[in-house]
Amino acid sequence: MWRADVITIFPEMFPGPLGASLAGKARANGIWDLAATDLRDFATDRHRSVDDTPAGGGPGMVLRADVLARAIDAIAPEHDPRPRLLTSPRGKPLTQARVRELAAGPGVVIVCGRFEGVDERVIAGRNLEEVSIGDYVLSGGELAALVLIDACVRLLPGVMGKEASGAEESFSDGLLEYPHYTRPQLFEGRDIPPVLVSGDHGRVAAWRRAEAERITRERRPDLWAKFREADLTRMADAQAPAIPPKKATDG
Q: Does 138 map to a domain?
C-alpha cells in the first residue's frame, strides 16, 4: 500500500480534499493510506513549542531542528525507504516526472514548512528534499502537501478509470494537453472542430498532437524549448550509425 505520512502543526487540515473524489474512494478501497502527525507532540516544554527566533536576528520564527528531528525519526526511521520531502518555496519545482517517480515508490514522508522556515541542520541531517509547487509563498506547507499527495495518488494503479487518462494529459510527454470538446455540437455559435467528428482516428491523433504543440509553444515557451531539445536529441540518436562490436583478437 502506498502511504503518505505528513508532519504538521495543523493535522486537522488532513485528509481535507483527499477524503473526497478519486483519492477518497481509493483510500477507502485500501489503495493508499494517509496519517497526519502533530509536530507539537514532540515538543518538550509545557507550551508545546516547536519554533524559536532566528539566529542572527530578523522577523518571524524558525521551526526547531531538535523537535522536528524527533518527529521524523519517530515517523520514518532509518530503514524507512520513503523519500522525506519538505514543502518549501525555495525547493525544486515539482514536475510530473517527479510525481511519477514518487507514485511508483512505497509512498512519501512530508514535512510541512511553516513560519520563516526550517532550521537548516535538520534539512541536512535528515536528508529532506525541498519541493515547491510554484513560484509563490503560502501561509504554510499543508496546501502544498495536499497538492503533492493528490498528484501521486491519482497515478496509483486502480485509482483512475482508464490508464489512458494518465497517459494523454498535460506534461505526460513534455507537452501541454490538447483542447477537449463534447456535446452539444454547436454552442453559442462555436462548433466542434470537424476533424473530431470525422471518424478518422489518424487525423484526430494528428490534430491533437498539433494542437498540443501549438498550445505549449504559445503558453509555455520554457516547456517547448525543452521538448524541442529532447526531440532533436531523439532524432540525432535515431540517425546515428550503429557502432559494430569489436572483434576479439588473439593476444
A: yes
Query: In whole angstroms, what separates CA 203 from the centre of its chain?
Result: 33
pLDDT tens-digit map of 99-157: 999 999 999 999 999 999 999 999 999 999 999 999 999 999 999 999 999 999 999 99
Q: Which helix (H) or strand (E) holds 208?
A: helix 201-219
d(CA 94, CA 112): 15
Query: In terms of Cα–Cα distance, which of 121, 109, 112 is closest to 139?
Result: 112
Among the candidates 153, 172, 207, a domain finishes at 153
- How far apart CA 229 and CA 164 sit, in angstroms, is 26
Host domain of residue 202? 186-239
Confirm whether 149 is domain-assigned: yes
Known binding-site residue numbers for S-adenosyl-L-methionine: 113, 133-138
Extract the annotated binding site: 113, 133-138
Nearest residue to 116 via CA among 96, 84, 140: 140
Q: Are 208 and 84 in the same domain?
A: no
Tell me, yes or no, whether 158 lies in a domain: no
Helix (H/G/I), strand (E/B), else coil: 174: coil
Which of 129, 153, 177 terminates a domain? The answer is: 153
Q: Total structural domains in the chain?
A: 2
